[in-house]
Design goal:
Layout: E1 2-5, E2 9-16, H1 21-34, E3 39-49, H2 51-66, E4 71-74, H3 78-86, E5 94-95
Parallel strand pairs: 2-3, 3-4, 4-5
Antiparallel strand pairs: 1-2
């Protein structure tokens, strides 16, 4: 897993899972704490995430809200969009361009 960027926009790539969660949490929390306005997470280079990785994203979302910021997801891969819809988190998280639920392939 890698994260590059600054306190306004971060690109997350690789696997966001139990092994990378602590490092990702540290980077995301620092970005939230050090910036202002929207924090954009570009997930277009993310290969996969597990429940722990999703928890890291939700934790950053909550922290951003407490800091008066908004976490915005960009470039969410289709597989992860399906997970967000299945867990109904697409209704809570800000997703750039939204998710076209009807256009997602069924699994």
């Amino acid at each position: 897993m890698y994260i590059r960027g600054d306190h306004a926009e971060l690109v997350v790539g690789g696997r966001l899972d139990v092994r990378s969660a602590a490092d990702a949490r540290t980077v995301l929390h620092s970005a939230v704490d050090d910036g202002a306005g929207d924090l954009v997470l570009d997930l277009s280079e993310l290969d996969s995430w597990d429940a722990t990785g999703l928890g890291v994203i939700m934790g950053a979302h909550r922290r951003a809200g407490r800091c008066g910021r908004r976490l915005v997801l960009r470039g969410v891969p289709a597989q992860m969009q399906r997970l967000l819809v299945a867990t109904r988190l697409h209704r809570i998280l800000a997703i750039e361009g939204g998710i076209g639920v009807e256009s997602l392939p069924r699994v």
